[in-house]
Specification:
Number of domains: 3
Number of helices: 8
Order of helices and strands: HHHEEEEEEHEHEEEHEEHEEEEEEH
Strand order of the largest sheet: 1-2-6-18-5-4-3
Distance between the termini: 56 Å
Amino acid sequence: MADKSKPSKAREPGAPFPPGELDPELIALRAKIGGVGPVLCVAVLAFFGYMMFTLRADLRFSREGETPRPVESIAALTDGDHLHDRFIHVRAVPDRGFGAMVSTGEAIGGHRVTPLLGSSDRVWLYTDGNPWTAIVAYNELYQGRLRPLDDLPFADGLRSFVESQPPSPRFVTTDAAREALTSGASTIVDPAGSQLPLAADTPVILSEIARGRAELVARATLDRLDEQAWNLVLTNAGVLPPGGRAYQGTERAFWYRVPAPEGLDEIRRKLVADNLFAVDVRPVVESRTAKWGDITAAAGGLKIGSREMMWTDIDRISLSVAHRIPDDAVIVLTDEKPEAYWYLLPIYIFMGLFSLLFAWALFRSVRDIVRTQVR
C-alpha cells in the first residue's frame, strides 16, 4: 500500500530555515560592488586639493626655464608679486656687516641670510654658509628663486633674531643729512638707496675735520728707523715744531699731529722739498656724538647745542639704526634651481587623475543615496 505524502505547511514569515536549506531571498540579493563611500571620496578629494594648493608655488617654479630672468634693479624685486617663485638673476651687494645663520636641516654650517644694500631690508639673500662649499660671487651677480620670506619655515626665527640685535652704524652723505635737517623728514636715504628711519633719540656720530691741523704718518726706512731720526728731519723741514714728538708709534711707523695753518698742501710741499717721500699727510678727524633731535640746521652747516660745524668740515656721518624686516620682505634662494623640482608635474598629473576618479565615485555614491531615498 503506497504511502501518501503529507501536505507541506506554509512557512511563516521570518521563520528560520532548517540546516542545509538556503534562503532563496538571500540568494536573490545582488552583491554590492565596491566599498567607496561618500565620506571616503570627500576625504580623498580634500587631501588632494590641499596638496595641490600647497605645492602650487613649487610647480610654478619647476616650469621655469634653465636660463634665469634678468632683473635690472633691487627695487624691481619688490614691485608686486609677479616675480615670486621665478628663477631670477640680479646684481646686488649684500650687507656683509649684518647677517644671520639659519639651518633647515642637517646642513653643515647652515645658510647665511643677509639683507641687500639699497633694499631697506625688504630683500634678503640666502647663500651657503659653509666656507668650503660656498660659491664666491666676485662680480656680485646672484641667481636663484625669489620667494616671500613668510613662506619659509625660518621666517619667525629670523625676525626674532633681527629684532634682538642692537642698532648698526649706517653711513649717510652730508647732502642727505642736510636735506633731512632742513625738511624735517622722518627718513633719510643712505648711499645705497635704503630708507632709514629717523627719530629724536637716534644716535649720530659726526666725524669733523679739524681746521689748521694735520696728521703725519712717517714710515720707518733704512736711514730713519726710530722716532728720534724722524723728529729731527721733520723739525728741520719746518713741519714739526721744535720739541715735538710722535703721539703714537710702532716699529714700522710713527704718527704726528702738527699745526697746518696754511693747509695740507703746504706741508706736502715742504716734505717734497726735503725729499721726505715716506710721510703721508692726512687731515685730523675728530668724532663727536649726539642725538638726531639735538642737531639743527645752520647757515652753511649744522648746530649741536651751541657748537656749529660747517658742512665742508664734516668728513662723514653715521647713524645707529636697527634692522627691521617688513611684512612684505622677499628672499633670494641661491641654492634652488627649477630642474630640482622635475617630479612635481608627474605628481600633479597623478593627483589630478585620482581626483577625477574619486569625484566620479562621489557622484555615483550620492546618486545611489538619492535613489534609495526616493524609493
